[in-house]
Amino acid sequence: MLETYLPVVLLAAISLTIALIFMTLSRVMGPYRPNKVKLTPYESGMDPIGEAKERYSISYYLVAMEFIVFDLEVMFLYPWVVRYLDLGFATFAAVIVFITVLFLGLLYTLKKGTLDFGSQTKVKPLWD
Amino acid sequence: MGLESALGEGFITTRVDDLVGWARANSTWPMPMGLACCAIEMMAFAGPRYDASRFGSEVMRFSPRQSDLLIVAGWCSYKMSHAVRRIWDQMPDPKWCIAMGACASTGGMHRCYGVVQGIDNFLPVDAYISGCPPRPDALLNALMTIQEKVKTEHSVLLDA
């Protein structure tokens, strides 16, 4: 059983060996002359501005999360649509409930203001 | 050096020189510095009709960290010259440079206060190309010139 994986192990070993050989060759044969300018970050020749780790609005995170939720909703709907006539009324009702629950969730997030960009900086409470 | 005495003086050094020169000459990855209309000809140089991959130079690297050959294509203003020089400085050794076209070589028709009169004012240039703009063939010719130069370099002595 295990010997069937021998080609995989061989492939990994060969590729690792070749990679190591080339890395060693380039380190041994190539010149390495670091200096201050050479080690600066590449910003198309300009001076780097600001930090690499920028803080950005939390709204992007919420939008991404909502996208995933509704993306998955569509993923669940596709198989149902394909077999729509065979599955009968009970499945239809289940799908309607599913969509309704997600729609209520969408209304909730809209009320929370997660899709309002720029008008306010933080998520506002539901009831003031 | 038992091996040296058996094979002759300088045998290993010259063989390694040849090997390294061959490898470097046939894998000169360009850093395209397209500043003006010459860059269009430079794109044709990488495209299928002129096919720089015959010379191992099809891999245009838009990062100086992975490139060996700076192709300055077009006229360079004084403001831009600082950026070009910094990108040149950020490229790892060994590196080569092509001044493509009349403007990069001499300033060309831009005989004015804002344009550097030839990028060799601030860069060590290995090959100049005439023309306005030069045809992709001319760029290939410059690349082959540089390949000849790389093949005859004494890399063991230079990189020690």
> Which geometry of chain B do the CA atoms define?
globular
End-to-end Cα distance of chain B = 18 Å
* Number of DSSP helical runs of chain B: 7
Spell out the helices and strands of chain A N to C.
HHH
- Alpha carbon gyration radius of chain B: 17 Å
Question: Largest interface: which pair?
Answer: A-B, 13 and 20 residues
* Radius of gyration computed on alpha carbons of chain A: 28 Å
How far apart the termini of chain A lie comes to: 66 Å
Strand order of the largest sheet of chain B: 1-2-3-4
Helical fraction of chain A = 55-70%
Quick structural overview:
The complex is a heterodimer of chains A (128) and B (160). With 128 residues, chain A is an all-alpha fold.
Describe the structure in your own words:
The complex is a heterodimer of chains A (128) and B (160). With 128 residues, chain A is mainly alpha-helical. Chain A has a domain at 59-112. Chain A is built from 3 helices and no strands. Chain A has helices at residues 6-29, 59-82, 84-112. In chain A, α2 packs antiparallel against α3. The longest helix of chain A is centred in the last third of the chain and has 29 residues, at 84-112. Chain A is flat, with a radius of gyration of 28 Å. In chain A, 0% of the residues are buried. The model of chain A has no long low-confidence stretch (mean pLDDT 84). By secondary structure, chain B is α/β, with parallel strands linked by helices. Chain B has one domain (29-150): Rossmann fold (3-Layer(aba) Sandwich), CATH 3.40.50.12280. Chain B is built from 7 helices and 4 strands, in the order ααβαβαβαβαα. Chain B has helices spanning 2-7, 11-25, 38-46, 78-90, 101-106, 136-151, 155-158; strands at residues 30-34, 69-73, 96-100, 127-129. Chain B has a 4-stranded parallel β-sheet. In chain B, β2 (69-73), α4 (78-90) and β3 form a beta-alpha-beta unit. In chain B, α2 (11-25) runs antiparallel to α6 (136-151) and α3 (38-46) packs across α6. Chain A binds chain B through residues 29-33, 35, 37-38, 40, 42, 44-46, and chain B through 16, 20, 63-65, 82-87, 89-94, 155, 158-159.
